[in-house]
Specification:
The structure is a single chain. This protein is of the alpha/beta class. Helices cover 46% and strands 18% of the residues. Strand 3 (52-54) and strand 4 form a beta hairpin. The N and C termini lie far apart (88 Å).
Length: 868
């Protein structure tokens, strides 16, 4: 197919496209953004808009798709959500005044991780660009949200990378090499956009120079970057990449924070998912998550900070207790806390408005909103006078006097400004003498037109004469054709219509020149004054961001106080004895979802000596998984600084929380449900420590009964015997054979979920008490689910046959082995072994279990081995 003959306009489009081959170019043409060639095909599919062609001649046809420029806020987020990167190319001159091809320039480049305008983000959550630098098994990682100025970095090992990226949930990842993009996409999926840094290398000297210049520093030592070379490179890449995209100095990104994974509780991907901290397993939304239940924050900044805390619980006991003490005082003074929340509810997203201020895209209404938010600072400080805790007093002291900023804004911006900054109607006329005079001319001009119209009607005797205005002809005098004979000679005809004629007069033309000149100058002057105000505010961005962060802190603390007060959460205490004890504990999410129904609370006790592993048995639907999760959620909530869902709570500081719950697979990677289960369990066994909390639910159920039982048994022994002896473990299982481990392993305790049976009906009591369940009630649960009664009856028959057969087989095997050990030429067998044999022979088949047989054989093997 022959190449289409390109017009000058298409050549101009391709000039920009060649600069950004991996991005969609939105090319402004009049009132539309147009796309061409492959861009048009992509946009038509994503945006569901018509794909047409430019030039009907087949040889010169060009795919074309576009949308109205004023609909950008509707279409752009859809492109970004589809992981597209977009170049916005604007007309830089009026097409009517242009000589030849209209001048166009790139005014913005928007990628999923570089969005400044909250209008395009459609979410209050952080919108991170994360950059990565790898050296061997170590990574440098930096994350920046250009919309709020938040910038952080760390250095970590490869095994922690996936969990950290999952926690950050970046919209875009920046790497040095193309191969890294493919490797990460295979690991993390294609929901994230990937970009490559302009240069394929960056050395430490270049990185330090970039960061010193940006932060105006002589040394990076004070912000922790110098000690972490890979993180330094990652941070430099991120800031350099964003500056190149935005052609902006990004001064609102005024600080960077180092964080260590070792300073916070480590939560792997499985734990975050299984505990449904931020996304529900079923729907993938926040509905039914801990975040949804805890988040009653009043500001977008507070909502973002709460999510950050939720995914990074603290390990520093003093810092945690400081948070608890603030929440405690806010609960004690709940009326003042409610008053504080009323003020916070009036405050919008100052952080993101500051991001728009930095990029120059902020509009007058948004600047006026900043003043309104700042004006509430004094009332907030006044309310904080009622509190005594030192951390709250420090927060109060950080709130500055912003009167000089608000006065400047309110003096400059009019009370109901227009959104566009080039069309006038945004500045108070009294602020500038020239502007005031021009407004007077413009205002008087309107009354002058009315006076002229009245005079001409009376002088000419034409009662339907009117003076009007349009953009094409300017001001004109309109007279009906019936009255055309009365038109004076000095009127100049401009247009003939069906029923009327339009004229201008020298007097009207002189007036038009004067008034329109004034209106045009008003627009120019107001724009100049607005730009001066914007520059002034850009110098105050650090103050604005500090105020935003202060509000976020207050918001989260007040939120914790409100939630804890209304839901009867308790203040947790920490102990050095490594005891986890919860009285009347409940699941914070499920209790809220139940609403009118009563949630049955339960106790939990774990220590380092006699009760560090709890085996929980009981039927499905009885509440085992709920019990496991509520313990983990209580520990996590305590370490983010919130009160916990219980009557009383005492616990140690946990370094990691692990969960292995439910069945899932990863077919795309060829991983079955059972393999995924084993991979997650392996991670727990390899990385848990004595100070970890481990939640295991139904381990070993994805394979044959004896394989699964053997694995579950060995896992419990490993947790009991290994280097992590003392790790707090809750292990729910349907393998009742495992309950006998409590007889041989000190530290293992049996608990079960109580069930009552009335005839063929089972009643779930949802109460967890010491002891072991006698059966699983699986067939009863199947009956509740509506399985046909014929199937239920047959299942009961088969179950009875299998149980009798297994019991008899295991007894016979055990007795045979016992005979083999004691047969001539046998070594001398200790007398008590004969007692074991005697007791074993007295056990009836229905009492004999596989675990009893295995225990006897194990004991025999030890004896023979020692005797040898």
């Amino acid at each position: 197919m022959a190449k289409p003959k390109l017009t000058p306009m298409l050549e101009q489009f391709l000039h920009f496209k060649h600069q950004h081959p991996d991005k969609i170019v939105l090319f402004r043409m009049g009132d539309f953004y147009e796309t061409f060639f492959g861009d048009a095909e992509i946009c038509a599919k994503i945006l569901n808009i018509t794909l047409t062609t430019r030039n009907k001649n087949k040889e010169n046809s060009v795919p074309l798709a576009g949308f109205p420029y004023h609909s950008l806020s509707s279409y752009l987020p859809r492109l970004i959500t589809a992981n597209q990167k977009v170049v916005i190319c604007e007309q830089m001159e009026d097409p009517k005044k242009a000589k030849g091809l209209v001048k166009r320039e790139i005014v913005d480049i928007i990628t999923p991780g570089s969005i400044v305008d909250a209008e395009y983000i459609h979410s209050p959550a952080d919108n991170y660009l994360t950059s990565l630098v790898q050296e061997g098994s170590e990574y440098g990682l930096a994350s920046v949200d250009i919309s709020t100025g938040k910038f952080s970095f760390t250095q970590l090992q490869k095994e922690n990378l996936t969990a950290e990226i999952e926690r950050l949930s970046p919209k875009e990842i920046l790497v040095l090499e193309h191969s890294q993009k493919e490797e990460l996409a295979e690991c993390l999926g294609n929901q994230i956009s990937y970009s490559q840094y302009e240069d394929d290398q960056i050395n430490i000297g270049q990185a330090e120079t970039i960061l010193k210049e940006h932060f105006s520093l002589l040394s990076l030592a004070g912000i922790g970057l110098g000690e972490h070379p890979l993180a330094t490179k990652a941070a430099a890449m991120a800031i350099s990449h964003l500056k190149e995209l935005k052609k902006n100095d990004l001064k609102h990104i005024s600080k960077i924070e180092y964080y260590s994974l070792g300073s916070c509780v480590q939560l792997d991907k499985s734990t975050v998912a299984n505990l449904e901290l931020t996304k529900s397993l079923l729907e993938g939304t926040t509905q039914g998550t801990l975040l949804q239940v805890l988040d009653q924050t009043c500001t977008p900044m507070g909502g973002r900070k709460l999510k950050q805390w939720l995914l990074r619980p603290l390990m520093d006991q003093e810092a945690i207790e400081n948070r608890h003490n603030i929440v405690e005082e806010m609960i004690e003074k709940i009326e003042q806390t409610f008053a504080l929340r009323d003020l916070l509810n009036q405050i919008g997203d100052i952080a993101r408005l500051t991001g728009k201020l930095s990029s120059g895209s902020i509009n007058p209404k948004e600047i006026l909103a900043i003043a309104q938010y700042l004006n509430l600072s004094e009332e907030i400080k006044t309310i904080l006078d009622n509190f005594d805790s030192l951390p709250l007093l420090h927060i109060q002291d950080s709130i500055q006097d912003y009167q000089h900023i608000t006065a400047k804004i309110e003096k400059t911006i009019c009370t109901s400004p227009q959104k566009l900054i080039t069309q006038g109607g945004i500045v108070n006329s009294e602020i500038n003498p020239e502007l005031h005079k021009l407004h007077r001319i413009s205002s008087l001009g309107k009354s002058w037109i009315l006076d002229l119209e009245k005079q001409e009607k009376e002088k000419l005797g034409i009662h339907n004469l009117k003076i009007d205005y349009n953009k094409i002809f300017g001001y004109y005098i309109e007279i009906s054709k019936r009255q055309a004979s009365k038109v004076p000679e000095h009127y100049i005809r401009k247009q003939t219509l069906v029923n009327c004629e339009r004229f201008i007069s020298p007097e009207l033309k002189e007036f038009e020149s004067k008034v329109l000149g004034a209106e045009e100058r008003i627009k120019e002057l107001e724009y100049e004054i607005f730009c001066q105000l914007r520059t002034y505010l850009q110098e105050k961005m650090e103050q604005l961001l500090e105020f935003a962060d202060t509000l976020a802190l207050l918001d989260v603390y007040a939120n914790f106080a409100q939630v804890s007060f209304h839901r009867n959460y308790c203040k947790p205490k920490f102990n050095q004895e490594k005891i986890l004890e919860l009285k009347d504990s409940f699941h914070p999410v499920i209790k809220e979802l139940l609403k009118a129904q009563e949630f049955i609370p339960n106790d939990i006790y774990l220590d380092n000596a006699k009760s560090n592993i709890i085996l929980i048995t009981g039927p499905n639907m009885a509440g085992k998984s709920t019990y496991l999760r509520q313990v983990a959620l209580s520990a996590l909530m305590a370490q983010i600084g919130c009160y916990v869902p219980a009557r009383t709570a005492s616990m140690p500081i946990f370094d990691k929380i692990f969960t292995r719950v439910g069945a899932s697979d990863n077919l795309a990677k060829g991983q079955s449900t059972f393999l995924v289960e084993m991979l997650e369990t392996a991670s727990i066994l390899n990385f848990a420590s004595q100070d970890s909390l481990v939640i295991l639910d139904e381990i070993g159920r994805g394979t044959s009964t004896y394989d699964g039982l053997s694995l579950a048994w060995a896992i419990i022994e490993h947790l009991h015997h290994s280097h992590m002896k003392g790790v707090k473990t809750l292990f729910a299982t349907h393998y009742h054979e495992l309950t006998h481990l409590a007889d041989t392993l000190e530290g293992v305790r049996n608990y079960n979920v109580i069930v009552e049976k009335e005839g063929d009906k089972i009643i779930f009591m949802h109460k967890v008490l010491p002891g072991k369940a006698l059966q699983s009630y699986g067939i009863d649960v199947a009956q509740l689910a509506g399985i046909p009664m014929a199937v239920i009856s047959r299942a009961k028959e088969i179950l009875q046959t299998l149980e009798d057969s297994q019991a008899e087989n295991k007894k016979v095997t055990a007795l045979a082995q016992l005979d083999a050990f004691s047969a001539p030429p046998a070594k001398k067998i200790p007398p008590y072994l004969y007692q074991v044999e005697k007791e074993l022979q007295e056990i009836s088949p229905d009492q004999m279990t596989p675990i009893q047989a295995l225990q006897v054989l194990s004991e025999l093997k030890k004896i023979v081995s020692q005797d040898s």
